[in-house]
C-alpha cells in the first residue's frame, strides 16, 4: 500500500490514504526513517492488536511497516536553529517531527534564532536522513507578529505582490472598467451587507416586485450583482498568476492576506455605496413560495449601491429602528422584501434536507499593541442572524442559478461539490450518538435530509455543539471539481461558487466563463477556455489552497489562544468538554473562548480507560467519567505558544454551569 505518514502523540504512526482515511498503524521502530508527512510504500506486518479488534467504534487497522520512503511531504517547517560541535541542527516546533535535524545551510542565522526551514528532497542513497535548509530567520523578540509571519512564510503566503501585478492592478481604474458595454442597472435599489470591518464589498443585492403579469402572482425579481473582477484581471496576466497562486484571501485577526491587491479588492472592484461600479449580475424570478420561475438572466452591468450596511445596521433597518442613516425608501423596501424572500428560501432548503451545521466561532480582539485583548464567542443578535441569513440565502440562490445556466448550455466550469458521506463513517458516528440519546438514520445517510433530524435532536443540549462537530468531521469535505456532482450539505443537485471573485479564485474562473458566454463565444471557444481553466488539476489546486487557508486561520486562532493564556497559569475557569481522546480531554472555556487540553497524565490518579464508541474517558477506580458536553472547572497549568496549546488541570471546585461530570 502507499500513503502518507501521520505521526501520533505516542510516536507511532498511521498510514493515510489520499482521502485522509487511516488504513494501517506503524510502530515507531518500523518507520524506516520516514517522518511525518512523508509518502511511503508500506506492507502489512501483522494483525491489529487484540484490544483493537474488539473495539466497536471502527474496523481494526492492521499493523504495517514502512518498506521505503517515496518522497518527502511537508516542505517547510518552523523551529529554531541550534549550533553545536557537529554543526547546525534544526529543532522543529511541531513535535510530530524528529527532535533535531541537520541544517546543511543555516542562512547565517545565529544560535537559537527562530527560523523557517525547508526539508531537503529525499536522498535515494540515504532515505533515512532528513535534513533541512534554512530559508528565513526572524528576530527572537517573542512577539505575536513574528509568530504569525513565520506561519505565513512557512505556508508560502506572501502579503505583498510582484511589482508587475501591482502596476496592473493600479491601471485597472473604475473608468476603464465601466467603458465596456454594460446594462445600466443603477436604478435598482442595490445595497451591500457585510461585517463591520469589511473593505472588500464584492456582492450587492436588490429585490423588487416583478413587473407585468408576474406581479399579479406576487412574484419578485432577485438581483445579485457581483464585482466584475474578471474585467480587471486578464487571464494569464501577472495579476492573474499571483491570484491563482494564492487561491483565496486568508483572514487573520490583525491582517488579511489578500488574493488581489487593495487597489482592486478595496478599490476599483469594491461595490461601495454611492459609487458606480462594474458588475456581473444575475436575476432570478421567484414565486411567492420562493420557487424559481423560468430561467435566470445573466448580464454585464453597471450598478450603484444605495448603501454599505454592516450586519448590525441591516438588522436595525429590518427591525425599523433606523441604523443606516438616510437609507432611501426603495432600498429599505427592497431590504424588507429580501428578508421575506430569504426566509422562504431557507424554509425550502431545509425542507429539502439541507444540513443546518452552525459551529461556535471565536472572535479574537487585538489589543492594538501587538497582543490579544480578548477572545470571546461570537454571539450575534437574532436580528444580526437574520441579516446574515438574508445574504447567505441570496448568495446560495445566485450560485445555484449560475450553475443551472452553465449546465443547461453545456459550458465547462469549476463546480463546488459535496459528496454523500461514507456509510461506515456515519454508522460509527451513529453508534456513538446513540450513547447520547440521539438517533441517527445511517442506513440511508446518502439521501439528503437523513441526518437533519439528528442535528435537530442535538440542538440546545449540553453536548450538541461538540457532537455536531463530530458529525461534520464524519462527512466528506466540500471541494472543487470540473464536473457537477451536487452538494450534499446544501441539498442542491447543482452548485458552484460565483459570488466572491475578490477573495476566491474558482469564482473568478466562473466569472470568465460567464463573461465569455455573454460575449457570444462559440462552443469551441468555450471548450478551449474550459480546457485551460476548468480542469481537474485546477480544481485540485483550488481545493488545496482552500485547505491551506483554513489550516492557517485555525493555527493562528490556536496561537492567539495560547498567547492570551500564557501568563494566566494558576487561574481557574469554567468550561465544557468539547472532545475526548485516548490522550485526554479537550475543554472549551466559557470566557475566554479558548480550547485547552486536560491531558490524561494531568488527571487525578485513576485507572483511566478510553471508550471511543462513546467518546468517553472513564476512571475504573472512582467511576468518574468525562463525556461531551460535561461542565468542568479547570486550572491553567501552562500555555505553549510554540505548540499552540493551552494545558489544563482539573480544579477541585464543582462547576457552576452545565452538566457536571461524575460517576455514571
Please work out how many helical segments DSSP would assign.
Answer: 15
Intertermini distance: 43 Å
Rg measurement, Å: 27 Å
| Number of strand segments | 32
The main pleated sheet reads as: 6 strands, mixed
Q: From the helix content, strand content and strand pairing, which structural class follows?
A: alpha+beta
Number of domains: 5
Mean of residue pLDDT values: 91
Strand content bin: 25-35%
* Overall 3D shape: globular
Q: Which regions contain 5 or more consecutive residues with pLDDT less than 50?
A: 50-57, 653-664
Helical fraction: 25-40%
Please tag this protein with its features.
664 residues, alpha+beta, OB fold (Dihydrolipoamide Acetyltransferase, E2P), 5 domains, six-stranded mixed beta sheet, five-stranded mixed beta barrel, 32 strands, globular, disordered C terminus
Notes on the protein architecture:
The protein is α+β, with helices and mostly antiparallel strands. It folds into five domains: about 1-70, OB fold (Dihydrolipoamide Acetyltransferase, E2P) (Beta Barrel); about 75-140, Beta Barrel (OB fold (Dihydrolipoamide Acetyltransferase, E2P)); about 180-420 and about 480-555, no CATH class; about 425-475, no CATH class; about 565-660, OB fold (Dihydrolipoamide Acetyltransferase, E2P). About 30% of the residues lie in helices and about 25% in strands. It contains 15 helices and 32 strands. The strands form nine sheets. Strands 24, 25, 26, 30, 31 and 32 form a six-stranded mixed β-sheet that branches. Strands 1-2-3-5-4 form a five-stranded mixed beta barrel. Helix 7 crosses helix 9, helix 8 crosses helix 9 and helix 13 runs antiparallel to helix 14 (about 525-535). The radius of gyration is 27 Å and the shape is globular. Residues about 50-55 and about 655-664 have low confidence and may be disordered.
